[in-house]
Amino acid sequence: GDLIYRYRMEDGLEGDEGTFTACAFWRVGCLALDGRTGEAKAAFERLISRCNDVGLLAEEIDPASGAQRGNTPQGFSHMALI
What we know:
Blueprint: E1 19-20, H1 21-33, H2 37-48, E2 60-61, E3 68-69, H3 75-81
Antiparallel strand pairs: 1-2, 2-3
């Protein structure tokens, strides 16, 4: 899928973590650099559809519900989008 965890969850820390929004946009860039522009465009469009009602992105996206989690707005997420 389009959502990517920033590291393996077996880290010994309590709690869970959503997928990291910046990683998902970095993947889009990698797809484009690999010449897979159709896949990159489709993934990008799916990711930007996850913006909230005023166009902002959070630090994380819950993979089960699609809800934004963590710091909102998150500068890293927007930097990766650009």
